[in-house]
C-alpha cells in the first residue's frame, strides 16, 4: 500500500537520519574491530542513467571483520525499474528517488554470524501528481553454528523495536522474513530470519518513518551482544571450511532472489556498492551433507527451520 508524501522536507528528514545511522553504526563497528572503517564517497557522473550519490563505509581484512560494508545512497532516475513496479504496475514509468542504508557484516570467526540490515525509502514521482512513497527494510541473522540464546536475543530485539507501532507487526514481519529469505532451489532458509517489510506506508508518512527509525536504531543492540559473546571462541580449519560452504548460500540468494540487488543492477546502480555484500571467502561442494550428530548437522536440524524464537 502507498500514500502521498507531504513535501521535500520529509525526504530531507529521512536523509539526515539515514546518514546519521550509517555514521553511528560504522563508528561502533570500527571500535569493536579496532580498525576504523574507510570512507568512500561517490557521485554519479553527468549523463549516467542515475543521478545522485552516496557514501560507502568499508572494512576489509580487519582484526574481527573479514568484511564489513555499510552503504548509504540517495539516487534519482527517470523510470522505476521493473523490480520496483512489478507489484504496482500503475506506477510503471514514473520517475523516482531511492535512498537507504544497507549493511552486511562478515566476521572471520565462524561462530559469529553474518548479519544484514537495510532501511530504505522510495518515492515515485509524476508531473502534476503528488509523489507516492513507501518504506522497506529489516534485519536478519545468518549463523554458521547455531546458539539458541543468540537467536532468541536477536528476535527479541526485533520484536521490541516494532511493538510500539502495533502488536501485529513483529509476527507479520517475522513471517515475511522467513518467506523472503528462503532459497527455493535449495528448499532451505538462508538463516534464522528476523524481520522484513516492504511497500510499507499504511499509517502515513510520519508513523511509517517512526517505525523504520525504531528498526534501524535497534540494530546495534540486536547484533553487538552476540558477537561480543562469540568473538573469543577458538576455531580451526574445519569450522572455516564449513563457514565458506554456507556462505555460498548467501551468494546464491543475493544474486538470484534479493530485490535490493536486482533493483540496483536493473536501475544502473553502482556495482561496487551493490556487491559489497558478498563474502570475501566462499566455496561450493558437490552434493555435500554434514555428518549426523555434528554441530554442522545441528545447524540444519535446529536452526535452518521456520520456528518461533520469542
Automatic annotation (TrEMBL):
<feature type="binding site">
    <location>
        <begin position="118"/>
        <end position="120"/>
    </location>
    <ligand>
        <name>substrate</name>
    </ligand>
</feature>
<dbReference type="InterPro" id="IPR036406">
    <property type="entry name" value="Coprogen_oxidase_aer_sf"/>
</dbReference>
<keyword id="KW-0963">Cytoplasm</keyword>
<feature type="site" description="Important for dimerization">
    <location>
        <position position="185"/>
    </location>
</feature>
<dbReference type="InterPro" id="IPR018375">
    <property type="entry name" value="Coprogen_oxidase_CS"/>
</dbReference>
<keyword id="KW-0479">Metal-binding</keyword>
<protein>
    <recommendedName>
        <fullName>Oxygen-dependent coproporphyrinogen-III oxidase</fullName>
        <ecNumber>1.3.3.3</ecNumber>
    </recommendedName>
</protein>
<keyword id="KW-0627">Porphyrin biosynthesis</keyword>
<dbReference type="InterPro" id="IPR001260">
    <property type="entry name" value="Coprogen_oxidase_aer"/>
</dbReference>
<feature type="binding site">
    <location>
        <position position="116"/>
    </location>
    <ligand>
        <name>a divalent metal cation</name>
    </ligand>
</feature>
<feature type="binding site">
    <location>
        <position position="155"/>
    </location>
    <ligand>
        <name>a divalent metal cation</name>
    </ligand>
</feature>
<feature type="region of interest" description="Important for dimerization">
    <location>
        <begin position="250"/>
        <end position="285"/>
    </location>
</feature>
<comment type="similarity">
    <text>Belongs to the aerobic coproporphyrinogen-III oxidase family.</text>
</comment>
<comment type="pathway">
    <text>Porphyrin-containing compound metabolism; protoporphyrin-IX biosynthesis; protoporphyrinogen-IX from coproporphyrinogen-III (O2 route): step 1/1.</text>
</comment>
<dbReference type="GO" id="GO:0046872">
    <property type="term" value="F:metal ion binding"/>
</dbReference>
<dbReference type="Pfam" id="PF01218">
    <property type="entry name" value="Coprogen_oxidas"/>
</dbReference>
<comment type="subunit">
    <text>Homodimer.</text>
</comment>
<feature type="binding site">
    <location>
        <begin position="268"/>
        <end position="270"/>
    </location>
    <ligand>
        <name>substrate</name>
    </ligand>
</feature>
<feature type="binding site">
    <location>
        <position position="106"/>
    </location>
    <ligand>
        <name>a divalent metal cation</name>
    </ligand>
</feature>
<comment type="function">
    <text>Involved in the heme biosynthesis. Catalyzes the aerobic oxidative decarboxylation of propionate groups of rings A and B of coproporphyrinogen-III to yield the vinyl groups in protoporphyrinogen-IX.</text>
</comment>
<dbReference type="GO" id="GO:0006782">
    <property type="term" value="P:protoporphyrinogen IX biosynthetic process"/>
</dbReference>
<dbReference type="GO" id="GO:0005737">
    <property type="term" value="C:cytoplasm"/>
</dbReference>
<feature type="active site" description="Proton donor">
    <location>
        <position position="116"/>
    </location>
</feature>
<dbReference type="GO" id="GO:0042803">
    <property type="term" value="F:protein homodimerization activity"/>
</dbReference>
<dbReference type="GO" id="GO:0004109">
    <property type="term" value="F:coproporphyrinogen oxidase activity"/>
</dbReference>
<feature type="binding site">
    <location>
        <position position="102"/>
    </location>
    <ligand>
        <name>substrate</name>
    </ligand>
</feature>
<feature type="binding site">
    <location>
        <position position="185"/>
    </location>
    <ligand>
        <name>a divalent metal cation</name>
    </ligand>
</feature>
<keyword id="KW-0350">Heme biosynthesis</keyword>
<keyword id="KW-0560">Oxidoreductase</keyword>
Amino acid at each position: 500500500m502507498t500514500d502521498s508524501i507531504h513535501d521535500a522536507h520529509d525526504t530531507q528528514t529521512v536523509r539526515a537520519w539515514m546518514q546519521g545511522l550509517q555514521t553511528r553504526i560504522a563508528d561502533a563497528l570500527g571500535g569493536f574491530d579496532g580498525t576504523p572503517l574507510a570512507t568512500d564517497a561517490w557521485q554519479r557522473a553527468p549523463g549516467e542513467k542515475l543521478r545522485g550519490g552516496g557514501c560507502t563505509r568499508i572494512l576489509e581484512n580487519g582484526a574481527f571483520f573479514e568484511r564489513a560494508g555499510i552503504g548509504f545512497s540517495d539516487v534519482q532516475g527517470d523510470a522505476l525499474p521493473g523490480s520496483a513496479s512489478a507489484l504496482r504496475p500503475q506506477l510503471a514509468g514514473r520517475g523516482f528517488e531511492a535512498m537507504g542504508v544497507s549493511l552486511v557484516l562478515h566476521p572471520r570467526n565462524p561462530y559469529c554470524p553474518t548479519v544484514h540490515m537495510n532501511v530504505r525509502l522510495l518515492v515515485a514521482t509524476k508531473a502534476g501528481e503528488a509523489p507516492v512513497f513507501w518504506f522497506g527494510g529489516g534485519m536478519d541473522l545468518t549463523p554458521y553454528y547455531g546458539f539458541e540464546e543468540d537467536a532468541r536475543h536477536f528476535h527479541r530485539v526485533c520484536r521490541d523495536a516494532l511493538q510500539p507501532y502495533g502488536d501485529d507487526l513483529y509476527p507479520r514481519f517475522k513471517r515475511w522474513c522467513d518467506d523472503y529469505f528462503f532459497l527455493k532451489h535449495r528448499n532451505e532458509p538462508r538463516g534464522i530470519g528476523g524481520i522484513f517489510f516492504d511497500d510499507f506506508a499504511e499509517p502515513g508518512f510520519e508513523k511509517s518513518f517512526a517505525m523504520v527509525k525504531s528498526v534501524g536504531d535497534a540494530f546495534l543492540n540486536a547484533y553487538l551482544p552476540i558477537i561480543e559473546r562469540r568473538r573469543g571462541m577458538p576455531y580451526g580449519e574445519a569450522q572455516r571450511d564449513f563457514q565458506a560452504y554456507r556462505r555460498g548460500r548467501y551468494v546464491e540468494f543475493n544474486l538470484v532472489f534479493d530485490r535490493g540487488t536486482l533493483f540496483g543492477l536493473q536501475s544502473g546502480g553502482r556495482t561496487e556498492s551493490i556487491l559489497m555484500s558478498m563474502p570475501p571467502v566462499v566455496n561450493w561442494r558437490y552434493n555435500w551433507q554434514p555428518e549426523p550428530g555434528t554441530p554442522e548437522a545441528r545447524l540444519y536440524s535446529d536452526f535452518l527451520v521456520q520456528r518461533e524464537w520469542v
